[in-house]
Amino acid sequence: MKQILQQSFRNQQRATASADVPKGHFAVYVGEMEKRFVVPICYLHHPSFQTLLHKAEEEYGFEHPRGMLRVPCDEDDFATLTSQMSGS
After folding, report:
1. What is the spatial distance between Cα 3 and Cα 22, in angstroms, rounded to a whole number?
2. What secondary structure letter does DSSP report for 1?
3. Which family is annotated (predicted)?
4. Which of 4, 63, 62, 60 is nearest to 30 (CA)?
């Protein structure tokens, strides 16, 4: 998991240096349409988010051709999950 995050962050830093990702956040691409979500880094400590990262590692491996962190999850489910994490 650490490898996938490090690689993704390096690629995102290059790709989104001037994009709309605030400090302390990172972009995640979700679902078949790869909808972009910007989430706080603190979500990385949440067990449910870590489960998604493990699934991403199993499904996509450590490297993505476009250097993005993609999560195998339905967009609505991801929005619900992040909503619950922001309330805890």
Report:
1. 22
2. -
3. Belongs to the ARG7 family.
4. 60
Residue (of 39, 40, 29) closest to 65 by Cα position: 29
Residue pair 11/68 in contact by the 8 Å Cβ criterion = yes
- Which residue type sits at 8? S
Phi, psi (rounded to 5 degrees) for 72: -80, 85
For 35-57, write each residue's pLDDT tens digit.
999 999 999 999 999 999 999 88
Output the pTM of the full model: 0.72
* The two structure tokens encoding residue 69: 């962190």
CA–CA dist 63, 46 (Å, integer): 23
Give the helix/strand (H/E) hosting 71.
Answer: strand 70-71
Give the integer Cα–Cα distance in Å for 58 and 70.
12
